[in-house]
Specification:
By secondary structure, this protein is mainly α. It has six helices and two strands. It has a domain of 86 residues.
Length: 205
């Protein structure tokens, strides 16, 4: 014997209840939350549900917008660096630069991106006022400068003058800085890594 069970109906008596029920249905459908096993059955519950659904949707929109802005900023940095790299590749292709030089240039830009996200330390330092630039250099390389024997007898004032003349750069692994017999016009202060001094098959650090 089959029995027919009717689903509970929400009683709608006033015009306000009808509008509230309609807005509740539309909000539930637009926010794709669905009615689920439990749904509002009175006007007060419907008004509360509408407020919660709208607030939750707005909160989700704000979170997604902030994430999109963060990703966009990262993409801008990557895009600018890639554009610079494309210009370099075009130049090398037009000038028919040798394959060895192209590989070294490619390794340089790969290292530049990995270490400094495409911005050289020197260009960043040039953005700063002289006083702040001096403070940054003093914090990062003053200890290495004082450790160099050539500056052993220098006063604090002279060391500050030396700092003002310093530039920042890095070399790739196995890159030759100077070859034997070549005149050196620059003084390098090593703050990180190591350098080999080669004389034929004999080397020393």
């Amino acid at each position: 014997m089959l029995a027919c069970v009717e689903s509970p109906q929400v009683e709608i008596s006033t015009l306000f209840d009808k509008y509230t029920r309609s807005i509740y249905w539309a909000t539930t459908a637009l926010t794709t939350s669905g009615f689920g096993d439990v749904s509002a059955s009175t006007s007060l519950e419907e008004v509360f549900s509408i407020a919660v659904l709208i607030f939750g949707t707005l909160l989700m929109a704000v979170v997604i917008a902030n994430l999109e802005e963060i990703v966009a900023q990262v993409d801008v940095t990557s895009t600018l660096f890639q554009e610079k790299l494309d210009h370099v590749k075009s130049f090398m292709s037009i000038r028919e630069i040798s394959t060895t030089a192209q590989e070294e240039i490619g390794r340089y830009y790969d290292t530049l991106w990995l270490k400094q996200k495409g911005a050289s330390e020197l260009s960043v330092l040039n953005y700063l006022p002289e006083r702040l630039k001096h403070e940054v250099l003093k914090h990062s390389v003053l200890k290495a400068v004082k450790a160099a024997p050539v500056f052993d007898k220098f006063s604090e004032g002279m060391l500050n003058l030396v700092l003002e003349k310093l530039d920042s750069s890095f070399f790739l692994a196995k890159q030759i800085v100077y070859e034997k017999g070549e005149c050196g016009f620059e003084l390098f202060i090593l703050t990180r890594g190591a350098v080999d001094m080669m004389d034929g098959k004999v080397s020393g650090k």
